[in-house]
Amino acid sequence: MYSESKEITATDWWALGDTPVRRDSRVTYYVDGQATFMEMCLCFMRATRSIYLANWGMEPDMLLVRGEDLLPEQPEQNARATYIEGLRAQGLQEADINFWLTHRLSVKEVLAYALSKGVEVKVLLWKAKKAFAVYDPQAAHDKLTEMGITCLLDDSAEGILHHQIESLHQKVTVVDNEIAFVGGLDPLIEKEDDFDRWDTPEHPFDTPLRRTKSGKSPHGWHDTHAKITGLAAGDVALNFRQRWNDLIARHHLEQLHIPEQPMPAPVESQSIVQIARTVPKHTYSFDKEAILGITQLYDHAFTNAQQSIYLENQYFWQRAYYGVDISLLGRDSAEMEEHIGQIIEALRRGVTMSIILPDHPNVGRAFSDAALMRLRNEAPEAVKESRLHAFCLATSHFKMEDGLLHYRPIYVHSKAAIIDDTWSTVGSGNLNNRGMHDDTEINVATLDSFLAHGLRLLLQAEHIGLLKPEELAAASRLYREQNLDTQARALAEKAFQQMEEALHDPFQAVQLMRQRAEENLQRYKEREPLVGHLLPYLTAEEAAQHNLNVREDHGWIEEPDAH
């Protein structure tokens, strides 16, 4: 399909002291919510024993499957037969198919259907404080329990030993103790009707598939997630059991205890895999000392980098944010100080780095600005040689009402890193004090050039608009090794060939990204349609130089009438 796997070793890439490094596990990466939630829904429908979810947030009414993934209301007979045969090919039984065709495929309804078949369903949600919550934990709990689903609100981050904004940030799914998911996606639409996690790679400005009951069209949402099978899935299951059993012991709910379970069967794989966590000290009884596996992964990855560092992240903070968006007022983050220093050393030895950030993070934009300026100031040769670039994402739309082009930022929530097209990680851990030290997180890391290289190609192709939507979708399915008919496979292989020709070399790929971002900036200024989604990430100072208005809570792309 594309470049042959490189010879790789397991030396000096891994975290110590928590979960083992696995050679008998398989990882599949998913880009954006449409594909991720579709796969989760299929796994829930096929479950025979158990479904466990641990999430930072959840909206039980959120639809997992929408739009073109559903059978049209009045399809042609051949189309209906083909669609149903496709569901059978995905392993659904006749009763499952009947449910699929006759019900809303919301989180709560799909989980309740699994429960009706005798599947054990348990949900663990962070008991977020009202001042910091973007969803209502109690309302989510009540909606699930009304369906008969066992749901607990996890208060393990509360107490005098924890900082006020500490969160339980993992996004964990385990099905039948054999299949696990970790990544950036919660099944969530925030309570203000913005930031619906379900989105397509096209990230449209407005679509009825994402329009809320209030009539709002949420910002686009870019994310990454991972599906895991083999023994590493058992490590994710262990993480869930540890958290769940710790909570029920503390609250004297022993009747809900989950017993130890056998590890999944090994699977044949060329990947070397590790599950890594961040768990602050005093959060659970199993973490007598802090678990800092994710920062250890990044320690090795940035130190090992010889050619390229590709990052997507919600944040890039050297200092810790605690409510005031002035970077000099933040306390130092030892882990991020170390990582930024490692990146600077990598840039000095000739590595090419690109990072995708949101133009309008919920907090801390000035903190990302400050960290980027440090890279530029301490590795000026990388700037001069065009080896250091930061980007953000946006979408455009022509409105008939006023006859003008309008623009909205796409929220970058992905926590992905790719080093030398060899090592990669996807998970919940952000590049800030919280992801590395202060919140409970989980990532998966793989040493596999097939996975790393393919993920970079798909992400960059999506951002620059290299392929048509149907071509990108086919290429993504081929990358995930899904079944394709002859026509779709030919389309996918041609799309991968196109991506290889344009993006194979990491340095040249970044130059193509830079060119597209600069062209789109000019289009933005002239109110012309964007090509792809890529724009330069502009610090407040840089935006002012372009005569663009920057607000810390909205960035420079946002328009007041964007909804």
From TrEMBL:
One GO-annotated biological process of the protein: phospholipid catabolic process
Gene Ontology annotations for the cellular component aspect, listed alphabetically: plasma membrane
Region (Disordered) location: 201-221
CDD domains reported for this sequence: PLDc_vPLD1_2_like_2
Gene3D superfamilies: Endonuclease Chain A (3.30.870.10)
Keyword Protein transport appears in the UniProt entry: no
Keyword NADP: no
GO molecular function: phospholipase D activity
Name the record gives this protein: Phospholipase
